[in-house]
Specification:
Blueprint (H helix, E strand, L loop, with lengths): L1 H20 L7 H10 L2 H7 L4 H13 L6 H13 L3 H9 L6 H13 L3 H8 L2 H6 L5 H14 L2 H14 L4 H13 L3 H10 L5 H13 L3 H13 L6 H14 L2 H14 L5 H13 L3 H9 L6 H13 L3 H9 L10 H14 L2 H14 L4 H13 L3 H10 L5 H13 L3 H13 L6 H14 L2 H14 L6 H13 L3 H10 L5 H13 L3 H13 L6 H14 L2 H13 L7 H13 L3 H10 L6 H13 L3 H14 L4 H13 L3 H13 L7 E6 L8 E6 L2
Antiparallel strand pairs: 1-2
Helix pairs in contact: 1-3, 5-6, 5-7, 6-7, 7-10, 8-10, 10-11, 10-12, 12-13, 12-14, 13-14, 14-15, 14-16, 15-16, 16-17, 16-18, 18-19, 18-20, 19-20, 20-21, 20-22, 21-22, 22-23, 22-24, 23-24, 24-25, 24-26, 25-26, 26-27, 26-28, 27-28, 28-29, 28-30, 29-30, 30-31, 30-32, 31-32, 32-33, 32-34, 33-34, ...
């Protein structure tokens, strides 16, 4: 009855309207238009629609009674359908308007914009009828279409729109700022700066757009310099200006400049929004100042999902996985529901710590929250693989519907790192069959697999593929992996050719080449290469010193080894690891200075392991000092009676002296205690047709 009453009033309203329109206007046209619209019963009827279902019923009723052909009513229908998220229905109603006015066009384009339908915005703007309505300047339409061109990176459409803006009149600073942003996002940074310089009155939005444009185009220093000019113009930045500048400092590794901006934020009294907080946390985390990042986080008055996730990411990426897991599991954050980035970072932390139980829990949480995107799935594969659950990693991989190159890299790397070398190579072959193009990460994984088993022929094939695909010129990691492959296969000549041909070299590259010479006993060339590295202003790390000490050990260069060990500790302040100590013990033991080596072992601040004792016992056998070796091994057996490796060391020591009865007695004692040593094995690559198959020779030792 209510709808009938409203319709009855509509017929009366329409008759009165016809009579009223025949009279000369006596009031202001704008006021008359407002009264005309507000008195329309169709608007009252449409105003009671709270759901799309009720809107469709009212729409049908209006169509049946022929009341939907009024342009105001049709435009209202377009707006309501858009507000309920039914943009296609809104467009269908709009297309039935015979002569839409500019307001109707703006309503339709607005709903495209609010639903991020940028392609539809550009197509809609190019409609001939809309162009006819834009005979004069319209700020709203031009701004929306410029935003669409920016998001789509449509430089051609953006240039056309620029011409249209110039044609219809002088644009204001708001639209000019949109043009600056459009050209910057389309990577036409010079055109963007040219437009920026033409804007007579630049507000903070305009300055920020140009600064962000520079930073997004990796013109970081130009962005920082522009901020100085902005301050000279007495324009104060906002949170987005400062957040972008902090991001520039992060990319440059300019920690002190970043701290200056942080101080500027505090001094100026800015509220820390999510963007600025994330930028600061990212700065401190990536610059290695994780304590400062933690201080920023815990000093926040309110912590939301963005800042919480940013702190977890910082912990996980900077080698503090336990802190990441602790932050994730703290009860005070239980009101925050993690997103894909949060869970992926937590899974990374689980992978680093080998915390399988937590990883499984996060997997279950992800299923409960409906997280099914590629980032989460790839993090799951990596977590299970690094927790040595390669079967579970494979199950997750098989459930991925759209396997991209990252998913393939995760599973190939997982198999390779867990010792399933040949399965990793087979997966690479399957990846190619499924038309997924390998990238640099893929080749690093398969080359590492080839290096671990001495797969020389397969590695050479991958070398050829790298050259064909152009991966050598663009990635230092692929070049280093190839160098390492040749080094481990004993081909020092090819390894050196790879090294010399590489334009960019990192510390791992230098370490691999130095180690290649060291393994082959060419210590002089290792040390010569180390000197060349220092000339390149590269600071050696603990891995490179391990390589140098090992090379000295293999060559019996005790004096040089001792000098480099002291340099490592005193000049570069590197804390020695077990590998460094083992190299020094090996140097002393090989030189026959066994008492000095034993004294060195007793003074080191960490518990000796089997590698260090093995080096000492090797020297004892070389110099027939069974007495010293027996003392050390017995001491380790007292400390670690459940470790089979020490029984084997003692048995081998007795056997080297021909004391077979004592050797067998030690092995029998090991068996009585239920201990066993994994058998050693060697691999040889053989010609077996087209397949790359291993021959495994196992020798129990």
């Amino acid at each position: 009855m209510k709808r009938v009453s409203v319709l009855h009033r509509h017929f009366q309203w329409r008759n009165l309207t016809v009579t009223a329109l025949q009279r000369p206007p006596e009031i202001d046209p704008t006021i008359a238009s407002i009264e005309f619209i507000s008195s329309n019963p169709c608007f009252s009827l449409l105003g009671i629609c709270k759901t799309v279902s009720s809107l469709r019923k009212v729409h049908a009723l209006l169509v049946v009674h022929g009341l939907s052909e009024d342009i105001f009513c049709e435009t209202k229908l377009v707006s309501l359908y858009g507000s309920f998220g039914h943009v296609e229905c809104a467009r269908s109603v709009f297309d039935r308007i015979p002569n839409p006015d500019l307001y109707s066009w703006k309503v339709m384009i607005r709903w495209y914009f609010l639903n991020d339908l940028y392609s539809e915005i550009v197509q809609f703007y190019n409609t001939t009828r809309l162009r006819k309505c834009l005979n004069e300047y319209d700020n709203v339409v031009f701004s929306i279409v410029l935003k669409a061109c920016s998001e789509l990176r449509e430089i051609d459409e953006g240039r056309k729109l620029h011409c249209q803006i110039v044609k219809v009149g002088s644009p204001d600073s708001f639209v000019l700022t949109g043009l600056v942003d459009m050209y910057a996002k389309c990577r036409e940074i010079e055109d963007s700066r040219h437009l920026f310089d033409e804007i007579p009155e630049r507000n903070v939005v305009c300055w920020t757009s140009m600064i962000v444009g520079y930073i997004q185009n990796d013109c970081l220093k130009e962005g920082l310099l522009l901020f100085n000019k902005m301050r000279e113009g007495l324009v104060e930045g906002n949170q987005y200006t400062l957040g972008s500048l902090v991001t520039a400092c992060t990319k440059l590794g300019a920690l002190y400049q970043g701290k200056w901006f942080h101080g500027y934020v505090i001094k100026s009294g800015f509220d820390l929004n999510s963007f600025l907080v994330t930028s600061l946390l990212d700065l401190y985390s990536k610059c290695g100042e994780i304590r400062d990042a933690s201080s920023v986080f815990y000093e926040l008055s309110t912590i939301d999902l963005v800042s919480w996730t940013a702190m977890i990411v910082g912990y996980a990426q900077r080698g503090h996985p336990k802190e990441a897991l602790k932050l994730f599991t703290e009860k005070r954050w239980k009101f925050l529901l993690p997103n894909t980035i949060t869970t992926s970072s937590v899974l990374s932390a689980c992978a680093q710590t080998g915390y399988l139980t937590m990883g499984r829990s996060v997997h279950g949480l992800g299923i409960k929250l409906g997280l099914k995107d590629a980032t989460f799935e790839n993090a799951l594969i990596d977590m299970y693989a690094k927790c040595h659950m390669i079967g579970d990693a494979w199950c997750v991989f098989e459930t991925v519907s759209d396997k991209d190159v990252i998913a393939w890299n995760s599973i190939i790397s997982g198999y390779s790192q867990n010792g399933y070398t040949y399965e990793a190579l087979e997966l690479f072959h399957r990846m190619r069959l499924e038309s997924v193009s390998p990238d640099a990460v893929t080749l690093v994984s398969v080359l590492s697999a080839c290096a671990s088993v001495g797969g020389y022929r397969a590695g050479i094939s991958f070398h050829g593929y790298c050259m064909k695909a152009g991966l050598l010129s663009g990635s230092v990691y692929v070049g280093t992996a190839l160098l390492n492959f040749y080094a481990k296969c004993g081909d020092a000549q090819c390894a050196r050719l790879m090294f010399d041909e590489m334009g960019e070299k990192n510390s791992i590259t230098w370490s691999a080449m130095i180690g290649c010479y060291g393994i082959q006993g060419d210590c002089s060339r290792s040390l010569e290469l180390f000197g060349d590295m220092l000339k390149e202003k590269l600071e050696p790390n603990e891995v490179i010193f391990t390589t140098i000490l090992s090379a000295c050990s293999h060559s019996g260069m005790l004096g040089e080894g001792s000098r480099y060990f002291n340099t490592m500790c005193k000049v570069y302040n590197i804390v020695p690891s077990m590998k460094h100590y083992a190299c020094m013990v090996d140097l002393l033991a090989r030189a026959g200075r066994l008492e000095e080596a034993l004294d060195f072992i007793e003074k080191i601040p960490i518990q000796p392991d089997v590698s260090l004792l093995g080096a000492f016992l090797h020297g004892c056998r070389l110099h027939s000092r069974l007495d010293l070796g027996e003392v050390v091994v017995r001491r380790m057996l007292e400390l670690h009676p459940d470790k089979a490796c020490y029984y084997v060391l003692m048995s081998n020591l007795y056997a080297s002296e021909g004391r077979w009865g004592d050797a067998n007695q030690v092995m029998e004692l090991m068996k009585q205690r239920g201990l066993a040593k994994l058998p050693g094995w060697s691999q040889v690559e053989m010609e077996t047709g087209d397949d790359f198959s291993p021959l495994v020779v196992a020798s129990h030792s």
